[in-house]
Amino acid sequence: MGRPKKDAPNRADGLYEVKVTIGKDFSGKLIRKSFYSTVSKADARAKAEQYKIDHAVYEATGAMPAPPVMTFEKWANKWLETYKKGVVKDHTYLFTYKSNIDKYLVPYFGKARISEIQQIDVQQYFNAIRGETGEPLAKSTLDKHKLILKSMFDAAIDNDLCYKNPVKNIKFQHVSDAATKNVWTKEQAEAAEKYARRVYRLDIVLYLNTGLRRSELLGLKWSDIDFDGNTLHVQRAVVQTKGKIVIDRPKSATSDRVVPFSAEFGSYLKKFQSDNEYVLGTNGVMSPGTYAKNFSGFMKKLSAATGVPVLTPHELRHTYGTLRREEGVDIYTIQKVMGHADISITADIYVHNDINVLKKRLNLD
C-alpha cells in the first residue's frame, strides 16, 4: 500500500496550524494557543504536546524550559522564506525586507541566539546604526527596521523560540525624511516645464502635472489615459530586481488610482500618442536602469539651461504635491491623488509647509 496522502497546509501562507487549549484565564475562559509547522499538521500537533509537557514541568518545578537554539541569522532567513517570499510582491520582498535584513540587521545581530536578544540589545542597535555617510538613517528606513524586527520576534514567539518580544519602547535618532526632500518653487517648476516642453521631455512634464512615481510612469500605457475625461489610471508599476524587469501591481491598494489632469495638459499629452504600448517606451517597456541614466543626464542639461537645481524623480513627485498644497488643496485630496496609503504620510510630508502657505495667503512674506 502507498502512503496516505499528506494533508495540504491549512493556512494561506503555507504553514500547518494546530490550536490547542493550554489553560484558563482568571474569568475561567479557555486560553487557546496556535502551534505551527512547515512540515505537517502532525508535526505542529507534536509541538503542542511538547509545550503541554514543558508547561506542566514548569508548573511543578518553576523551571522554564530552554527554547530551541536558533541564531538571529538563521531565523531571519527562515522567516523570510516562510512568511514573506511569495506572500508579498517580489520587489517588496527584496527591497523592503531582504535588503534591510542582509545589509543592516544580520551584520549586527548575526550569531546571537534569538532567545537571548533583549530590549537593551535592540535599543543599542538603533543607537549605533548609521548610513554610509555616518549620519543616522532616514526615519522611514528605521521604521522598516523596527517593523521587521517586531514581526520576526512575534513569529519567533509563535514558534516557541523565545518568550517575549524585545522590540518595545524603542526610540531612535533619524534624519528627517521631509528635510531630505528638495522641491522646486512654483517659478522654478514653471521654468523647468517650459524647457522640458520645448525639448519634448514628456516624462518631466508628466511628473509636474500628475505626481506619479517613477515606477508608475514607466508602467503607464496609452490605454490607461482617458483623453475625453482628462484622467489617467495608475494600475501597474515597473521595477528592476537584480537586473530583471518586473511589471507588477502598484505599490499599495491606494496606489491603484485615477489621477485627473487639466484639459490643457491633456491636449499637450495627446500630441505624443503613438502605436507604442507604453507612454515612455519605444519598443515595449523601458527598463528602470536605462531610464535612470537617461533622466540623470537630462536633468544636468535642464539645470544648466534654466538654473533650477537638479532633482530626482521622487523629488519631482514631491514638487507636484507641494505646489498643490501651496495652492490650497487639502491634504485628503492630495493623499488620494498621490496614492498614499495613510493620511499621516501625506501630513508628515506636506503639513510642515502650512505656515508658509498661511503667510502667503495673508500677504506676510
Number of strands: 7
Question: What order do the SSEs take from the amino end to the carboxyl end, as H and E?
Answer: EEHHHHHHHHEEEEEHHHHHH
- Beta percentage is 5-15%
Distance between the termini: 88 Å
SSE blueprint and pairings:
Layout: E1 16-24, E2 30-37, H1 41-61, H2 72-84, H3 90-109, H4 119-128, H5 139-158, H6 186-198, H7 202-210, H8 214-218, E3 225-226, E4 231-234, E5 237-241, E6 244-248, E7 257-260, H9 263-270, H10 288-306, H11 313-326, H12 331-338, H13 343-350, H14 354-361
Antiparallel strand pairs: 1-2, 3-4, 4-7, 5-6
Helix pairs in contact: 2-3, 6-7, 6-10, 7-11, 12-13
Structural overview:
The protein is mainly alpha-helical and 365 residues long. The protein folds into three domains: 16-61, no CATH class; 72-158, DNA polymerase, domain 1 (Orthogonal Bundle); 186-361, Intergrase catalytic core (hpI Integrase, Chain A). 48% of the residues lie in helices and 10% in strands. The protein contains 14 helices and seven strands. It has helices spanning 41-61, 72-84, 90-109, 119-128, 139-158, 186-198, 202-210, 214-218, 263-270, 288-306, 313-326, 331-338, 343-350, 354-361; strands spanning 16-24, 30-37, 225-226, 231-234, 237-241, 244-248, 257-260. The protein has a three-stranded antiparallel beta sheet with strand order 3-4-7. It has a two-stranded antiparallel sheet with strand order 1-2. A hairpin with a 5-residue loop joins strand 1 and strand 2. Helix 2 runs antiparallel to helix 3 (90-109), helix 6 runs antiparallel to helix 7 (202-210) and helix 12 (331-338) packs across helix 13 (343-350). The longest helix has 21 residues, at 41-61. The radius of gyration is 26 Å and the shape is elongated. The termini are far apart.
